[in-house]
Amino acid sequence: MTYLIFSDEYFMNEALKQANEALHANEIPVGAVIVNQNRIIARAHNMTQQLNDVTAHAEMIAITSASNYLGAKYLKGCTLFVTLEPCLMCAAALKWAQLDRIVYAASDPKEGFSRLREPILHKKTEVITGILENPASSLLKQFFLKHRDQKH
User: Fold this and answer.
1) Which tens digits make up the pLDDT trace of 58-93?
2) Is 27 a catalytic site residue?
3) Of 74, 72, 9, 81, which is closest to residue 42 (Cα–Cα)?
4) In the chain, how many H helices and how many E strands?
5) What is the pTM of this model?
6) Active-site residue, from 21, 27, 59, 85
7) Residue 134's pLDDT is what?
8) What number is the average pLDDT over the span 94-108?
9) Which of 9, 73, 121, 135 could in theory staple to 3 by disulfide, Cβ–Cβ 3.0 to 4.6 A?
């Protein structure tokens, strides 16, 4: 696939690379990148199994990494690209980080933040959904099919 440089699709493809790393590490395949001024400043994927930490979601790790890179607790001027809609825990952290934009690929109707009636994100945060949804969903289905088959 060919993407325009600095497009949402380009950066989501970078998040998908992180999701693939998670898949190969036997983690739920969610990947994230945080972009500032068209430059990736943080890359992360789920590490809950590896770190034995339920909070080690891709978004949480990316927030910490981007904050360290910028030397700031607020991520104004930044965009998070993540392959799965953030859960409530991550959405609350994203609210406090005050990103300009959140772009996610696949929706998560069971655990995603959008299932809430009340907005949880920062009021100035723009949300874009469905960018490269099919490849992100495919990775997740592949992971859960494999794990379901292992249980039987």
Assistant:
1) 999 999 999 999 999 999 999 999 999 999 999 999
2) no
3) 81
4) 5, 5
5) 0.93
6) 59
7) 97
8) 97
9) 9
